[in-house]
Structure formats: structure tokens, C-alpha cells
Design goal:
Layout: E1 18-21, H1 24-33, H2 37-49, E2 51-53, H3 54-61, H4 65-77, E3 81-88, E4 91-98, E5 102-105
Parallel strand pairs: 1-5
Antiparallel strand pairs: 2-4, 3-4
Amino acid sequence: MAITRQKPLTRGEVGDKALIINNIGELYRIARVLSSHVRVQILYYLALYGELSVKQLAELTKTPLPIVSRHVKKLEQEGLVITGLKTGRRGLRKILKKRYDRIIVRL
């Protein structure tokens, strides 16, 4: 698997998007999503590599593909990742990108 590492954004760089959590309901929702180590690993690898397929994420996290797909769906539902389709050698494959560079909690 050939994966190239993305250059990390530095503070204030163009493209730096933050999810700002201002209330307790949002905090509970995001905390529940981030309570899974697999979902945190997925976000970590997307931050590190920029764009990955579900299969690549399964290999990186050493997690079975169906389980990674379920975690990806949860991240999609909560708006933490952006998904799309790309043409692969054997049809379409699902590609993910992170939506935010930072999560800020303001209490």
C-alpha cells in the first residue's frame, strides 16, 4: 500500500478548520463519537495522510473492514469526515478526508 504522508498544518495556516463546541449537548455528542479508539485512530490517520480509502484505514488500524465501515458511518453521521467515491481498479471505492483540523471546546 503506497500512502504518502500529508504535511501537517501549522497554527493559523490557510485551510485550518476548527469545530467549535459551545454547549453541553454538542460536547456529549462529540465525546460519544470520540470514545471509540478505532474512530480516534481513523481521524488520526486521516490527519496524517490526508485522504484514505476504507480498505487502507482497515489495514492501518489492523481492524476488520466491516468494523471500520461501521465506524466510518458514525463519523460521517456526526459530520467529522467527508466521504466521496473514486474509481479504483475494480470499480468505485469510498475515500475519506477529515473535515476539521481541530476540535475546540468552549465551556
